[in-house]
Amino acid sequence: QVQLVESGGGLVQAGGSLRLSCLASGGTFSRYAMGWFRQAPGKEREFVSSISWDSSSTYYADSVKGRFTISRDNAKNTVYLQMNSLKPEDTAVYFCAKSKGSSRTYYRGAYDYWGQGTQVTVSS
Q: DSSP class of residue 43?
């Protein structure tokens, strides 16, 4: 059974930075693409970013492109999301997810395991 545990969320002022981490256990982490999603109160869960199994390919939502960077360390079974120039509209619970395949994807249905989420709050 795969388990994903996010950390690194918190309260930050607009323009600030945070780095989220997601530690995976119970499976072969290095074979699969990973993704980050977020959900704001009263809104649908939305795609943020994804990375292929070997880090050769990444993908970002337009709303975070140029500000967020996804990366992974397969030796540590960890995927990261570096978030810079944060805006109040980035406030949400951020979820890490494991893909069923090796290629990066924005399609929510392609992910089969999810973490419990970490809260990110950006104050104006």
A: S
Dig out the tokens for 110 from the structure.
Answer: 């392609």
Strands 10-13 and 118-123: parallel
- 71, amino acid identity: S
* Closest by Cα among 120, 106, 123 to 21: 120
Q: Is 58 within 8 Å of 104 (Cβ atoms)? A: yes
Tokens representing 32? 């699969």
- Output the six-digit token pair for 68: 């967020």
Q: What would the pLDDT profile of 76-118 be if each residue is shown by its tens digit? A: 999 999 999 999 999 999 999 999 988 888 999 999 999 999 9
Q: Which of 33, 14, 15, 53 is nearest to 96 (CA)?
A: 33
Sign for the pseudo-dihedral over CA of 13, 91, 66, 55: positive
Query: Cα 8–11–12 angle (5° rounding)?
Result: 100
